[in-house]
Design goal:
alpha/beta; DNA Binding (I), subunit A; Rossmann fold; two-stranded parallel ribbon; 10 strands; 37% helix; 16% strand; globular
Length: 265
């Protein structure tokens, strides 16, 4: 059932955190007309269905919710992944050539590169030539790491190892862009390289993640050589389901020795 937000006291919008209420439950429609059909629509999508207007303007609750979601998305881009989270995940941390989050956003080319010292750390601490190398990056949505990786990464590894597929040493990359995949692959030479990385947030969630995977990744590969699972979050593809999907795709890559447009999956 959706919760109705009006100014007549049905729900006190000044004393609740509107962002904690799923959009499927957020409603300003207080009419019983076609109620069953309306509730079906609300359950089917997290889009802003049932948002009221006064003239051309949103009602107060809808306007506040829109602003809150917008700020959450902006904050997710600028936030840092806490060191506590990296430690709890049991990962060692490295950083790209970007000196700050601002530089990562304005110089994406540096977000795929490591210093020689960092390359040495990765090379020394990681297994070389595994079947699959998985690493985690903050990308454009730092909260996605804590929200998804604790469920997703162990499940991916368990599914792959059950099939006898070797998984390399995991690590975390700060100020990470997708094409670190190419640099990591050149260092460790896995058959498949996969980065679990925060994707650009929107109004529905500020915890969304993507998995970018490539077979035999290299500096001169095309963007179309990536296979991507996106919109991994509690309001998109749940982490556990995404893990099963990612593991199946990686198995297909190893069998077919390709990825991207060449992969039949």
């Amino acid at each position: 059932m959706s919760r109705v937000f009006t100014l007549d006291g049905n729900t006190d919008i000044l004393n609740c955190d509107l962002t904690n209420i799923p959009m499927q439950e957020f409603s300003e429609r207080d009419s019983d007309e076609n109620k069953e059909v309306y509730e079906q629509y609300k359950k089917a999508t997290p889009a802003r269905v049932g948002i009221g207007h006064t003239g051309s303007r949103y009602h107060t609750a809808a306007a506040l919710r829109f602003q809150a979601d917008q700020y959450s998305a902006a904050n997710a881009v600028q936030m840092e992944v806490p060191e506590r989270v990296v430690k709890e995940l049991g990962l060692f941390e490295v950083q790209t050539k970007c000196a700050s989050k601002y530089e990562m956003l304005t110089r994406p080319d540096l977000g795929r590169l490591f210093t020689e010292e960092t390359k040495k750390i990765i090379s020394e601490r990681c297994v070389h030539e595994p079947d699959v190398q998985i690493f985690i990056g903050d990308g454009l949505c730092s909260p996605s790491v804590e929200a998804n990786v604790p469920t997703m990464y162990p499940a991916i590894c368990a599914a792959l190892e059950y099939e006898g597929i070797t998984v390399g040493t995991p690590f975390f990359v700060r100020y990470c862009r997708v094409n670190t995949v190419r640099t990591v692959a050149e260092l460790l030479h896995p058959k498949v390289t996969c980065v679990l990385i925060g994707e650009r947030p929107g109004l529905l969630t500020s915890q969304s993640m993507s998995a970018y995977m490539a077979y035999n990744a290299r500096y001169d590969m095309l963007e179309s050589d990536y296979t991507v699972v996106s919109n991994i979050s509690r309001v998109g593809m749940p982490p556990a389901e995404a893990a099963a999907n990612i593991a199946d795709i990686i198995k297909a890559m190893l069998e077919q020795k390709t990825s991207g447009y060449g992969l039949k999956y």
